[in-house]
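INPUT
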Amino acid sequence: MKPPPFGYHAPGTLGEALAALAAVPGGKVLAGGQSLIPLLNMRLAAPSDLVDINRVAELDTLHAGDEGVRVGALARHARVERSAEAAAVQPLLGQALRHVAHPVIRNRGTAVGSLAHADPAAELPAVLAVLGGTVEAASARGRRTIPAAEFFRGPLESALEPGELAVSAFFPAAPPRTGTAFTETARRHGDYALAGVAAVVTLDEDLRIHAARAGYLGVSATPLVLDLTEAAGPHGDWAAAAAHVRERIDPEPDIHAGAGYRRHLTGVLTERALNAAAAAAMRKAGD
Ligand code: FAD
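OUTPUT
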């Protein structure tokens, strides 16, 4: 199928991109196009204009520092996935990105585009949410920082307003004695997952559980974050944490899986992810 007609803008700088977006209220940003182009071709979206940011070199950035990893709007999934610097600061990014679609899609799709797209089945929104990260938005009116807890509003709906461009996303660094893990189940390799879990476990100085958190995809309209510290207890009873999660979630059935199956699966994935994150935290503590 062919997309509906649209005006096309190819700015070369961020300032030009923001001016173009301000001039076309019905316009949309085109980043990697891995979600937007299929939506256009299926006529599920019909923006008046596309503002293609692929020539805006100043958005093609990836910076890993002590505080965390800042991913610019043009950093492709593959670049973030393969960055040893980013993995050293926040390993959950690479762990999750390996599950995003196929390599060709990761070569083109952008991490920030995935956040802006706000698909409840996507991996990165759950990662940003469980880490308590932020999105930096810019428009002709100025800049603002949006916490993950406020960024995801509903399926395919973010807090970005017309005329706003997400210029970067910030993923906070893992604190000391912290391990992370990501696991999901999809019907076929590379498909969107039926359910997935991003787990973060931090140990105290006596190697007991100090904090255990999990971010979920595929079980709610926006990424769900659960604090499982109390449910797991100081010695990490991950089966108890999984039972708690099964009680807390209320997944929707769809053509791929019923609600009961998703609930069961989410518990299984929770136990696995927390186990793996705790083992990684132990290794870190031993370093
Ligand atoms: P685009 O397609 O260019 O844009 C997507 C949306 O975000 C548009 O509404 C656009 O206007 C907006 N947008 C993009 N960038 C910005 C910005 N900087 N500021 C404001 N708005 C912006 N994703 C997963 O997470 N998991 C999967 O398993 C998965 N499987 C896939 C399988 C297939 C076959 C395909 C084609 C895609 C799949 N994807 C999956 C989607 C892929 O990860 C996309 O790359 C990603 O969702 C969007 O990134 P993009 O750069 O391609 O954005």
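end of record. Residues 28-36, 38, 73, 100-101, 105, 109-110, 112-114, 116-117, 122-123, 160, 165-166, 192 surround flavin-adenine dinucleotide (CB under 6 Å).
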